[in-house]
Amino acid sequence: MKAILPLFIFIDACGWELIRNDPFARDFAPNRRRLETVFGYSSACIPSILSGRWPAEHRNWCYFVYDPCHSPFKPLRPLRWLPKAVTSGRIFRRWLSRFVRAQLKFRGYFDLYNIPFKHISLFDFTEKKCPLKPGGMNHGRNIFDFLELRGIPCHVSDSAKGELENLESVTADIDSEQIDFAFIYWPELDGLLHRVGNQSPEVPVKLRQYEQWIKRLLAAAQAHYQEVRLYVFSDHGMANCHELLDLRSRIESLHARMARDYVVVYDSTMARFWFFNERARHEISECLLQVAQGRIMPDDELKELRAFFPDHYFGELIFLVQEGVLIVPSHMGERPLRAMHGYHPREKHSYAALLTNQPELSAQITAIPDIFRLMTRDAEQARAWNRSRSHVSNADSMGLRSQYFDSSKSGMVTSRDPAPDRVGGPTTKFTRL
User: Fold this and answer.
1) How many CB atoms sit inside 10 A of residue 121's CB?
2) 22, 83, 140, 189: which sits with the fewest CB atoms below 10 Å from its CB?
């Protein structure tokens, strides 16, 4: 039996408001905390969790950016001559996205969404690498680089597999006692919430399923590890959409013209503009000031949210709508969704959640990038204690007494003792975060 297994279970979109008054996981993860998310979508939130940094630092923010010089999509321009009824269909777009991803050797999440083929050669896609792999960040390292560099054996969910298949895989790794750290990613709740909204009776059904899976993982882990440190967390919440905004029609009614005077990406909750002349900048800015459902994000506020990019790579002007408003049609889709995220991080339904069986959490754990600190700390502790226990087991096999040597006291600490705070030597202390 090993000493410690940290279990980090990431449930996409399981926000604070969703579980605040729900019994979800209360019996095995009673310590619960609301966490601030980052400004942006999962394309920004997940890298922030995995790296401990904010979008301005890791430069994983929105997917599509204006960058015609580096656009890999020029071969797709002839598709603009196909009927829109074909090219805007989700089945066609899904199939084409899989084909393009394979051809371009993209390793992260990829979807063409509803970017018009007429303009697709103006854009580049920013997530070419998989954030769930070592070397997967646009800038800097992530938790998987950390684990690899330190030689910490781990389990990481495979994004190409379904939730149940990943559950079976991590259970097998736990049973084998070959891992010192587990990162499990369950994304289906996010898709369910987009489809049915956060008040649907289908949502608690899904939460109950997750509870049963977590209990199963805990039972398996407790059979092979003396201490199981459980953390269940999310990247953001989800808000029901109660108003649709056709922002594109308003902008296209102006004198300024797309690709001649400006370029824009219409995300689900924001519009990001690049300008080629001051006339277009002024005209579009004045138009946006008349849109009551949103506002232009000032640079100072973007800096405060740590989502400001001095090179304006992700847009020169960011227009953000209020919580509950959905931009339709957008480049993310032409059909309404029941719920959405990507609003201001301090809107009510934006907050993420952290649930744990650990009795103490530092007051400094306030936002989703802070989860990285928990992961690195627990991974280091698990490695140290599991290797110590491995040495003890080897000694047992030679008929020696199972015990640990504490050099600070020149004495012995028996293997029956729970893992203390002292790891790796007499001066090494760890504080619970």
Assistant:
1) 17
2) 83
Predicted confidence band of residue 315 (pLDDT cuts 50, 70, 90): very high
Confidence band, pLDDT 50/70/90 cuts, at residue 115? very high
Quote the CA–CA distance of 379 and 359 in Å, as a whole number: 18
- Residue indicated by tokens 């149940």: 164
Residue that is written with structure tokens 């394309």 in the block? 43
CATH homologous superfamily of 242-336: Domain 2, Phosphonoacetate Hydrolase (3.30.1360.110)
d(CA 327, CA 342): 12
Output Rg (C-alpha) for the chain, integer angstroms: 24
What's the rounded Cα separation, in Å, for the pair 220 and 216? 6
- Strand extents, DSSP E, 276-416: 294-296, 317-321, 325-327, 339-340, 352-356, 403-406, 411-414
Closest CA to 372 of 34, 53, 37, 42: 53
Q: Does the predicted TM-score (pTM) go above 0.70?
A: yes
- Tell the CATH superfamily of the 2-57+130-238+348-381 domain: Alkaline Phosphatase, subunit A (3.40.720.10)
Helix (H, G, I), strand (E, B) or coil at 34: strand
CA 373 vs. chain centroid, Å, equals 15
pLDDT per position as a tens digit, 70-101: 999 999 999 989 888 888 888 898 999 999 99
Q: Do the Cβ atoms of 5 and 221 come closer than 8 Å?
A: yes
CATH code 3.30.1360.110 region(s) in the chain: 242-336
Nearest Cα to Cα of residue 293 among 270, 312, 321: 321
In the chain, ranges of CATH 3.40.720.10 domains: 2-57+130-238+348-381
pLDDT of 323 over the 70 cut: yes
Collapsed DSSP state (helix, strand, coil) of residue 301: helix
CA distance 323 to 301: 17
What contacts 104, CB < 8 A, 6 or more positions away? 72, 128
Q: Both tokens of residue 291?
A: 């849109």
Q: In whole angstroms, what is the distance from residue 271 CA to residue 285 CA?
A: 12
234-275 pLDDT tens trace: 999 999 999 999 999 999 999 999 999 999 999 999 999 999
More confident residue, 88 or 329: 329
